[in-house]
């Protein structure tokens, strides 16, 4: 022990006690998904507090020279089997009664108990020191090591804040109207049953106003069920704020809604308020579903959830390389599904998994914050098969089940989710998200981090050709833009079961008028060919400013492929808005084919004999009294200010800008919309906004033609060296980074967006040793190269789909089906099974790969 004591004394300066703000990674390895429950446990560096599995701790020791690590090992305690669990990996049979996670009545989460062992391990000899050994060591050693061990174990793990502990969608606040609610002494007494709406005689979804005792029906839901809005109308007429849902009253409480506060609320005086109308809570029994139960039921529609998850079949669990499940971290199924599909694409495998050793060797000192390292770690975890093993049975080892458990050990991508979501208002939260939005967001992150070397996003990148023809002059304009996804509209009027839908609507109206429960609604069947035709058919543009006739006219826009990518992503635009701007999901079945031939949709470019629209800009936005004068910098003079183009304050219609801003669009985008449409009105500006919402610089400041700087920025303005270093580290030159920062008022986030939206211009900036662009002269500059895209024949085969269950992207659940070795496999978070009937007609995102010629 004396030898160990001497070693500890020699490395004492490298053993730190965690301070507030230190990031302690004691739950997950920085380079793998090893954890304290893994074989060999987790080794936490006692200096940097990074965690490493037994496979990677030697690598860290050799690279940094760090010798002291705290080894944390956890062993699962045996648990008795829960009566509510089938023991076969199926969900609990007990139905949730609260829209919550991790609390009584909510959706169950795994709560496991562990025995924990902690000791200090000294490298390279792996000498071990437990707490009891410290008693015989010098005071200075004992004190420092003990404090460090205690500090690490007491510190909150970085992943702790990212884990789902409890989430309750049913947390309600006390209504401000409840304590002093005035109730009318009208002598009204409510019977314990037999209620009807006083206006339409509806007998369900009834609400009693707690001020006057009037009983009326509730709101009509988006699918036509519910009530006829008579309780809401009563509030609008009287202003009486609180209502209780009849049928939900029990001795434990009831559903109370505040129309004034527009939310479900608590009423601490509910027994008193009910007794005013002769209702004794203690004698009431529940006869109606609560609002939470209704929401859960809507989000678990049998027709969609069971089909997509293949719940009716006994699925065969799969294990092995490429068949690794991902734990749900709390509404992270959208991320799980997208990443499972992406790492089926060879480009992502080659970029991140084939080079895993090189990437880890080159990882920075804190690999938890390195994008390439964390993506490679996730890819290797999914494809290696190391974590694709049956999950240990939490029940007593003596009990056995004839059915194999469907759950896997899997991987929990907490570190990855925290890194890619950092700073994003949605992806940094535990709320449900749109898988399509996350896919594009992640592709954008890959683009930013692959300026040099192979870029796997090129597998999805393609060019779109847009042909606009002026109907008055018959002259055409061709433009090309980069895209990563085809967004197919859903033409509901093309349903093949129109008669069935019309009959269902007639029955619904009859039921509504008679107060009977609404009949089940059939699913609309839409041909895939109709969706593709809706995407490719000519679109009429009104208020198109034609440079040929120098006026507004009508034009047609046709969209075609200018190139075909190696992998084609198709989104079915199921999510839309109703007339009341409430988001809803179209319940449709689309016969998506296994193979596609899109050759007929390739663009042809300018046709023989076809005249092009002249390249003339719209009329300038200046009044006659505006003086055109340059803004002079340090190098300017009054005789020649050509070095800096005139920076004018454009005369914009403030009322149009204000109207657009009131719709929720960014101010700078509104200013650009008014400027580029020639101040001709709200309609044209709105069309511009809708056509440019996807532009990377949509909300960037308005930069006038000929100006390289945003308003208020001069070309000689100094830029932040820290911001410069950040952009240069992404693969850009110092001159390019400087130009981006000056164009965006020295704001780093905007500069990064700006630089990626001006790649074509930046590619042509050849920087000489003096730091000045070799292409200063417009006459000597080469035309900027176009974006790199792959091209080939337009024949594809389906290899994956992501499906969504629920009423909107903000709720529900995602799963993905992937074709591996001619076998469809369902990835449902931690469950990975052979698919018997993939729901190809109910998908949301479809992934095709090019068929080899």
TrEMBL record:
<comment type="similarity">
    <text>Belongs to the peptidase C19 family.</text>
</comment>
<feature type="region of interest" description="Disordered">
    <location>
        <begin position="386"/>
        <end position="407"/>
    </location>
</feature>
<keyword id="KW-0862">Zinc</keyword>
<feature type="binding site">
    <location>
        <position position="217"/>
    </location>
    <ligand>
        <name>Zn(2+)</name>
    </ligand>
</feature>
<dbReference type="InterPro" id="IPR018200">
    <property type="entry name" value="USP_CS"/>
</dbReference>
<feature type="binding site">
    <location>
        <position position="230"/>
    </location>
    <ligand>
        <name>Zn(2+)</name>
    </ligand>
</feature>
<dbReference type="InterPro" id="IPR038765">
    <property type="entry name" value="Papain-like_cys_pep_sf"/>
</dbReference>
<feature type="domain" description="UBA">
    <location>
        <begin position="718"/>
        <end position="758"/>
    </location>
</feature>
<feature type="binding site">
    <location>
        <position position="207"/>
    </location>
    <ligand>
        <name>substrate</name>
    </ligand>
</feature>
<feature type="domain" description="UBP-type">
    <location>
        <begin position="173"/>
        <end position="281"/>
    </location>
</feature>
<feature type="binding site">
    <location>
        <position position="259"/>
    </location>
    <ligand>
        <name>substrate</name>
    </ligand>
</feature>
<keyword id="KW-0788">Thiol protease</keyword>
<protein>
    <recommendedName>
        <fullName>Ubiquitin carboxyl-terminal hydrolase</fullName>
        <ecNumber>3.4.19.12</ecNumber>
    </recommendedName>
</protein>
<feature type="domain" description="USP">
    <location>
        <begin position="324"/>
        <end position="851"/>
    </location>
</feature>
<feature type="domain" description="UBA">
    <location>
        <begin position="651"/>
        <end position="692"/>
    </location>
</feature>
<dbReference type="InterPro" id="IPR028889">
    <property type="entry name" value="USP"/>
</dbReference>
<dbReference type="InterPro" id="IPR041432">
    <property type="entry name" value="UBP13_Znf-UBP_var"/>
</dbReference>
<feature type="binding site">
    <location>
        <position position="257"/>
    </location>
    <ligand>
        <name>substrate</name>
    </ligand>
</feature>
<dbReference type="InterPro" id="IPR009060">
    <property type="entry name" value="UBA-like_sf"/>
</dbReference>
<dbReference type="GO" id="GO:0016579">
    <property type="term" value="P:protein deubiquitination"/>
</dbReference>
<dbReference type="GO" id="GO:0008270">
    <property type="term" value="F:zinc ion binding"/>
</dbReference>
<dbReference type="Pfam" id="PF02148">
    <property type="entry name" value="zf-UBP"/>
</dbReference>
<keyword id="KW-0378">Hydrolase</keyword>
<keyword id="KW-0479">Metal-binding</keyword>
<dbReference type="GO" id="GO:0005634">
    <property type="term" value="C:nucleus"/>
</dbReference>
<feature type="binding site">
    <location>
        <position position="200"/>
    </location>
    <ligand>
        <name>Zn(2+)</name>
    </ligand>
</feature>
<dbReference type="InterPro" id="IPR001607">
    <property type="entry name" value="Znf_UBP"/>
</dbReference>
<keyword id="KW-0645">Protease</keyword>
<dbReference type="InterPro" id="IPR015940">
    <property type="entry name" value="UBA"/>
</dbReference>
<dbReference type="GO" id="GO:0006508">
    <property type="term" value="P:proteolysis"/>
</dbReference>
<dbReference type="InterPro" id="IPR050164">
    <property type="entry name" value="Peptidase_C19"/>
</dbReference>
<dbReference type="InterPro" id="IPR001394">
    <property type="entry name" value="Peptidase_C19_UCH"/>
</dbReference>
<feature type="active site" description="Proton acceptor">
    <location>
        <position position="813"/>
    </location>
</feature>
<dbReference type="Pfam" id="PF00443">
    <property type="entry name" value="UCH"/>
</dbReference>
<feature type="binding site">
    <location>
        <position position="197"/>
    </location>
    <ligand>
        <name>Zn(2+)</name>
    </ligand>
</feature>
<dbReference type="InterPro" id="IPR013083">
    <property type="entry name" value="Znf_RING/FYVE/PHD"/>
</dbReference>
<feature type="region of interest" description="Disordered">
    <location>
        <begin position="766"/>
        <end position="792"/>
    </location>
</feature>
<feature type="region of interest" description="Disordered">
    <location>
        <begin position="74"/>
        <end position="98"/>
    </location>
</feature>
<feature type="binding site">
    <location>
        <position position="262"/>
    </location>
    <ligand>
        <name>substrate</name>
    </ligand>
</feature>
<feature type="region of interest" description="Disordered">
    <location>
        <begin position="499"/>
        <end position="520"/>
    </location>
</feature>
<dbReference type="GO" id="GO:0004843">
    <property type="term" value="F:cysteine-type deubiquitinase activity"/>
</dbReference>
<feature type="active site" description="Nucleophile">
    <location>
        <position position="333"/>
    </location>
</feature>
